[in-house]
Amino acid sequence: MLKVVLGAVLACTIVGCRSTAIPPPPRPSGAQPAATSGASSTASSGTSIAGGGPAPSCPPIPPVAPTTGSLDVPGWWRDRVFAEVFVRSFADSDGDGGGDLRGLTAKLDYLNDGNAATRTDLGVTGLWLMPTFPSPSYHGYDITDYRGVNPDYGTIDDMRALVAAAHQRGIAVILDLPLNHTSSKHPWFVASRTGTGPYADWYVWADSPQGSNWQADGKRYFYANFGPDLPDLNLENPDVTDEVTADAEFWLADVGIDGFRLDAAKHLIEDGATTENTPETHAWWKTFRASIEATAPGALLLGEVWDTPQNSASYVPDDLDLMFDFALSSSAVGAAQAGDGSSLSRALAKVTKLYPAIGGFGSFLSNHDQDRVASQLGGDPGQLRVAAELLLTGPGVPFIYYGEELGMTGRKPDERIRTPMRWDASTPAAGFSTGAPWEALSDDPPEVNVATESADPGSLLTHYRDLIQLRSTHPALATGTWTGVTSDSPGVVAALRVSPTETALVLTNVGATAASPSLDLASGPLCGVPSVEVVLGDGPVTAPIVGAAGGFAGYRPLTTIPARSSAVIVLGG
């Protein structure tokens, strides 16, 4: 890594931000930036070729606007990096072959040890737990008790201990909360099947099927969008809404959870033949959100809407705080695989206009419902590294699926994309358990594990750690807005990331050959004669000649960007 500083000064755009009404969990102080290396030289100045006329002079930096606690912009989560963890597969504390909460708690130092000086942790500051409620299935998305903990995982006291230990390390914890449906074994559904009593109308019943996904039950039918074992709750019944809202509030107020990932968020309420993204569903989320905000101001509500960016973005900022964008995920993985960044650049331009300017969407490469990214990319080391760079230098709030940072592989069926975490090369379970694991390990070489990769400065795990540290120490990467920059190289994805205190030019060459892109930005936030500092990648670097419109033309910052690699250049002080 080479850092080179040229000239003097800065970006002019100021972007508002907010924090929540309650403070977030304590955070570590952050890793220290790498020491400057390389020689310094002075940028040339003169007449701009971008927009005509001399570069605008730089006004004094105004103070960052005070936070308001408003619900129309993201909160404490906007500068975090989250890990998604399947508790059953992360760490087993008692040798029974299944992961549990105590095992996860014992491994928190791997995620973040709270000590910025050690550099031995992954550096994540958020943790999303796949369902931890009682359930008859291995995956847990069919809940039988919204206020309990799956006995396979431990007790509610174990959950409280996990949350407290995570907060001590600066890690926020969110739970996966399926509200569209329950298990068919939930006591509510068992009572509802009788057709009488207080639970008769807690699910969606009819005397005849009203379309697809209706299941026969004696002389009646119930609606179950995800299969007969997962009957849909009747969320138009105010008693049901009151109960599941109170259940969510329990975890926030009594256990200290920081928010929820909301499963199947677009499916809640059907409107005739329309079963997704209905006005009634949007209205229900608004009601739910208002109640949650009153109980736990600032709690994160993160929605899963596996849909087009337009439909997904329609839930923020009014209904929910944050949404996963699946189309952008596919575009990023596709760019890493194809070596062409053109479609990803177009997708980023589209998505960043649809969502709130800072942190309105969750970014990811793969999750528990998809083939692992290492399998999608054929285990290619260069593609895996550049995919990580796209994720961790790009916009949005990044989510890393456990084991992704190791290059763990896995293809459906679902159990094979949720295999045990590989901690070392030992038998019988790679350090996950002292007993036989609940599911066989992934089909990877023994060296794909935390211990081996931690000791290798060139490993994928080390790369993830370095990228997360880079993101945490540069506000432009963590919370900056995204503005596309035109590149004459189709393999290079180029953008300006702008925060209130920092502007960075991010260049990612997803191609299989080195590139030397010429860049154009018709207008932008730049002014004066910016300094340039390479914080990722290699120099020497050239400063842009800024035009009257704050952009540049024909700018070639680096002689070359190696294949499947990135450069991040901070512009200004």
Please outline the helices and strands.
Blueprint: E1 5-6, E2 82-85, H1 101-106, H2 108-111, E3 126-129, H3 156-168, E4 172-178, H4 187-192, E5 205-206, E6 214-217, E7 220-223, H5 238-255, E8 259-263, H6 279-295, E9 300-303, H7 309-313, E10 322-324, H8 326-338, H9 342-354, E11 361-364, H10 373-376, H11 381-393, E12 397-401, H12 450-454, H13 460-473, H14 475-479, E13 481-484, E14 486-487, E15 492-498, E16 503-509, E17 519-521, E18 532-536, E19 552-555, E20 565-571
Parallel strand pairs: 2-3, 2-12, 3-4, 4-8, 8-9, 9-10, 10-11, 11-12
Antiparallel strand pairs: 1-18, 5-7, 6-7, 13-15, 14-17, 15-16, 16-20, 17-19, 18-20
Description:
This protein has about 575 residues and is of the alpha/beta class. The protein has a domain at about 75-200 and about 230-475: TIM Barrel, CATH 3.20.20.80. The chain is built from 14 helices and 20 strands. The chain has helices spanning about 100-105, 110, 155-170, 185-190, 240-255, 280-295, 310-315, 325-340, 340-355, 375, 380-395, 450-455, 460-475, 475-480; strands spanning about 5, 80-85, 125-130, 170-180, 205, 215, 220-225, 260-265, 300-305, 320-325, 360-365, 395-400, 480-485, 485, 490-500, 505-510, 520, 530-535, 550-555, 565-570. An eight-stranded parallel beta barrel has the order 2-3-4-8-9-10-11-12. A six-stranded antiparallel sheet has the order 1-18-20-16-15-13. Helix 8 (about 325-340) runs antiparallel to helix 9 (about 340-355), helix 8 (about 325-340) runs antiparallel to helix 11 (about 380-395) and helix 11 (about 380-395) packs parallel to helix 13 (about 460-475). The longest helix has 18 residues, at about 240-255. The relative contact order is 0.15.
